[in-house]
Amino acid sequence: MDSGRLEAFSDGVFAVAITLLALNLVISGPGPHQPTLAAKLGDHWPVFAAYAVSFATIGIIWVNHHALFKNISEIDRTLLFVNLLLLFFVVSIPFVTDTIAAYLRAGGGNAALAGALYQGVFEAMSISFTLLFWQAIRREHLQVSLTPRQARQATIRFGIGNLGYIAGIGLAFASAPASLALSGLVAVYYIFEQTPGRAPQPPHPSTSTDPGSTTR
Amino acid sequence: MDSGRLEAFSDGVFAVAITLLALNLVISGPGPHQPTLAAKLGDHWPVFAAYAVSFATIGIIWVNHHALFKNISEIDRTLLFVNLLLLFFVVSIPFVTDTIAAYLRAGGGNAALAGALYQGVFEAMSISFTLLFWQAIRREHLQVSLTPRQARQATIRFGIGNLGYIAGIGLAFASAPASLALSGLVAVYYIFEQTPGRAPQPPHPSTSTDPGSTTR
Amino acid sequence: MDSGRLEAFSDGVFAVAITLLALNLVISGPGPHQPTLAAKLGDHWPVFAAYAVSFATIGIIWVNHHALFKNISEIDRTLLFVNLLLLFFVVSIPFVTDTIAAYLRAGGGNAALAGALYQGVFEAMSISFTLLFWQAIRREHLQVSLTPRQARQATIRFGIGNLGYIAGIGLAFASAPASLALSGLVAVYYIFEQTPGRAPQPPHPSTSTDPGSTTR
Amino acid sequence: MDSGRLEAFSDGVFAVAITLLALNLVISGPGPHQPTLAAKLGDHWPVFAAYAVSFATIGIIWVNHHALFKNISEIDRTLLFVNLLLLFFVVSIPFVTDTIAAYLRAGGGNAALAGALYQGVFEAMSISFTLLFWQAIRREHLQVSLTPRQARQATIRFGIGNLGYIAGIGLAFASAPASLALSGLVAVYYIFEQTPGRAPQPPHPSTSTDPGSTTR
């Protein structure tokens, strides 16, 4: 079974989830005793901040998903269901984004729980992606197998996301806004990350002649 | 007419329907006399349970749809419309999911009706899928025809879903939560099901040399 | 420019619009002085009726769009924008569906206007599709050109939809439910229509040897 | 990395964003002291006007995106992220459309701010598209390189959009409805624009023999 339709379905889910994020931005219309639009927009900053972080995170998952499946030649039933597990958490992101936006300034246990829930879904999504990657390696479904150096780099890359979100769960109990900022930093890290031998993207089969591979 | 665009349109509908499920998860923001977020989330369990079962069910329909159409070489007008009938019930799933989530603890006739409606849409979806399968066989549109053993297995596979949802309609009148749990079990069954000769997925044309085919 | 991406974008819009129809089905949860779920569902019939008619209509537009573009070899800028015009009315269908569902039993001028608006969007969508078809013929973009008989049949086919929706606009002023029923009949007609030489779907290039073509 | 999946994901986002625009059209149902449907629809004109302008604008971005990527042979990580930046602003369009529709007649600073926000997102989207175009040229990813005349024309084309939206930000402080009308004019300009050597769409490699290229 080829990966075309899995990618099409996943792209659809990513596209809908990333666009639904914006449904929560809506601001109430003008009314007799309402504050000005400027005041409302200013008051709305947690919604915009959560929207930006979640948009960047879903965008990066999509980029990584794209890179991983470029190198997968064959799909089996297990991969289909691990991919569905990943999508389950992606689809939950608009919900936890709304929740953290609503409770970010509530303080106390409410903000902490909203922050931990947000980070928890990101962590679960990150773990699902790692499972997808392991499953792809274990079943020898990669078109171009990884060199040990590439495998180490991939482990480091996934580790940074996983550790960031776990730290975020803890940080949420100290400060929900700080934990949201941390998720934003993780997203920025992935945007600018340029490891030369990015594991899931060996540009050409000739990467197996990469000097690192001589340590195999 | 090839099946590419039918699959693309169906994938779009599956992707939107599965993502819209999460729109119902939203929790009201903090307010003066409101319970804590933890209390709200705890109180919200029917919404999460219904979301998980519906997500898994749509995911499995998609996997089976994917498997069926891999083996269909040609699409005619009847298949297009039977597929639209299937999508009609898929699109209805977010509605019945919201309804069962809202009424699960209402008890009495309300919960029973909400549960029966939920199971009824799943059953209608399951029947539509069976019609799609029969239509594909009858018109000899399969690229690889089924052996009698494969046809028997396919009948058993579809039967389990159909019987499960019909039993769920009855069970809803005794206990709506139990009927929701039953749908969850049907979904789990399909996730772990590994019948060797899964009918709509003959891996290679060489399956026609399968020992079971000698009984033809 | 090939038609692949136009079809993918259009499929996305069709898929989202058809799935958003179901957002309006939502029923309020149980409450202290609320009627039973059965009473609410019964009271909700205009919503279900409008949903079914709109679903069938969008489904049929999609089937016809699919059939038309199978036979178009090349896309120019005009076709792109006529297609956007068609999508503009498709995207408006969830709105007019909600409106007719809300006002169907309101009676008087309100129901008539809601019905006329519904039929008017269907008529505008139908005219856009006719423009798309004419544009495709005029620019000689069809892979297989139509015989005069096929062209006559295509004109009849489009005419039935156009006349049905225009009649529906008028009928809405007498009875909004009757105009909704008429749109449902138009949809049923297209589902069962089986004209042998359906214009946009010449099965093989050999249709140019069709006897009708001798009258050219 | 080829551009297929980037286009599929982008098409999904464009399709969902353009369809979500219509969610805001909804009109409240009939009630005891409510105005007639005709009065409500008449009162609703800013919603319809904003919907039409935003629909046309997203449609045109999609047409231009389509034209640009037809001529891009290879995608790198930078292009993926610049494309995500473009999609970030596309996804924000339903939000600013709702806001301008709600505040268009509010007058004073509220209407001005709503108008400036609307134009600002369009301008940011336009700048992102220009960045995407520059990035595509700079990295020599175009399959058919541009002649100097084509490059000049492309600069003029992008400039008109950019200047139009910047003018719109200023105009919003004088009159929000006038700024909305200006965005509509920009959209109409792009629909009817027919520059012969449209930069991102060189119809054939033979355009390099275009007389303009002799000035190179």
Characterization of this structure:
By secondary structure, chain A is mainly alpha-helical. Helices cover 70% and strands 0% of the residues of chain A. The first copy, chain A, has seven helices and no strands. Chain A has helices spanning 4-20, 37-43, 45-70, 77-103, 108-138, 148-174, 176-192. In chain A, helix 6 runs antiparallel to helix 7. Chain A binds chain C through residues 12, 15-16, and chain C through 12, 15-16.
Summarize the structure.
Four copies of one chain form a homotetramer. The first copy, chain A, has 216 residues and is mainly α.
Rg of chain A computed from alpha carbons, rounded to a whole number of angstroms: 20 Å
Helix fraction of chain A by DSSP (H/I, runs of at least 4): over 70%
The chain-level mean pLDDT of chain A equals 84
Spans of chain A of at least 5 consecutive residues whose pLDDT stays below 50 are 195-216
Q: Name the chain pair whose interface involves the most residues.
A: A-B, 33 and 35 residues
How many separate helices of chain A? 7
Largest sheet of chain A: none
Count of β-strands of chain A: 0
| Euclidean distance between termini CA atoms of chain A | 31 Å
